[in-house]
Amino acid sequence: MAISFEKARGLILDHVHPLEGEPVDLLELVGRVLTEDVRAPWDMPRWDNSEMDGFAVRAADCGPAARLSVEGFLPAGVSAESISVGSGTAVRIMTGAPIPVGCDAVVPIEETMADEGAVILRGKVTAGDYIRRRGGDIAAGEVMVPAGTLLRPAEVNLLASFAWLQALAHRRPEVAILSTGDELVSPGETVGPGQIIDSNAYSLAAAVREIGAIPRLLGIARDNRDSLGEKIGQGLQTDVLVTSAGASKGDLDLVGEALAAAGVEQLFWKVGMKPGGPTAFGLKEGKPVFSLPGNPVSSMIGFEQLVRPALLKMMGRAEVIRPYIKVTLKEALRNETDKVRFLRVWVEETVRGLEAVSAGDQNTGILSTMIRANGIAILPADRTLFAVGEQVNVQLLHPDHVPGSRQEV
Description:
Elements: E1 3-4, H1 5-15, E2 21-25, E3 38-39, E4 49-50, E5 54-57, E6 67-74, E7 89-93, E8 105-108, E9 112-114, E10 118-121, E11 131-132, E12 143-145, H2 153-161, E13 166-170, E14 174-180, E15 184-185, E16 196-197, H3 200-210, E17 214-221, H4 225-235, E18 240-244, H5 255-261, E19 265-268, E20 271-274, E21 280-284, E22 287-292, H6 296-314, E23 325-329, E24 333-334, E25 340-350, E26 353-358, H7 367-372, E27 375-379, E28 385-386, E29 391-396
Parallel strand pairs: 1-20, 6-7, 14-17, 14-18, 15-16, 18-22, 20-25, 23-26
Antiparallel strand pairs: 2-13, 3-12, 4-11, 5-7, 5-8, 6-10, 9-10, 19-21, 21-22, 23-29, 24-28, 25-26, 25-27, 27-29
Helix pairs in contact: 1-6, 3-6, 4-5
């Protein structure tokens, strides 16, 4: 009997855990998740400094139209120890330069006029103007990037600012991908009668790589115990094993038997979802093992909905399920099964908001529909008809690009 889709995903996520941390070089940290807090080793800024190009002054000297004698120049990157601002004087200062002794404000150059070795102020000046105070951004010892942070270029900038060349981040899982079946040949080999090119391995490897995990292609296991046993043994040396095909109850579907012989404990075999129903999940000493259908679309949907969240959790990600958004249907959709249905749709932005239509033939053997889709509509198991104008949950496959008009492939 099939397990419900929601229970299957919950069971998977209950049994996978973030991998341990490892030192990661600065430029490799983007997209990784920290395993420990990173604290600031010093104040940022490290000294009081100027926010603007202008003049360092004493606010008490800066009445309306004050004229101050310019007594020095202070560029960024030099010490201010030998420069001071006395009564009735100003020091020319550049952005980032340290604040000289005696100064309590900076006047931007745009608010002044030059006057033969002096400067005339145009506006009001208040103590503290345009001065960045030491530790005003981050104080020494403060947690500047907490554990669990998904690192972006902004965090890399911050770490670099404090001379962090490495940080500890969750290890990326190594994912073994195994195709099974006597009918399969590898891309580039001669295809004989009745044979099929093994494309699933490459789509799964691409999906693994897209989220930052490490794919390992094991090749093709033939439909016999020796071949399956050898390849499965290789796959169990990695962090995760994903098999493709051989999960159905056919006479030659030996994958389940071979996994059991290798010590994999099966937690479920069939899921109430379409496509992707004949998906199995098990554990070998805590190591997750997924068996996906051989049908290309079923394999990709099974990965998206069940494997991808598990891998993201292993990488330390807090948000592992692709967000659902509400999208209005431009045409009626049907779920004529008693399972959760994942329909490939095209989503576009219109004056009425986000709207969706079917991306085409939903047969699980039609790969071109997967290419045309930019979203997956999730139709619950307890309803059949979803009418025009109704809103349904959709997961955008390319959330950074929702076109304003349909593009044909």
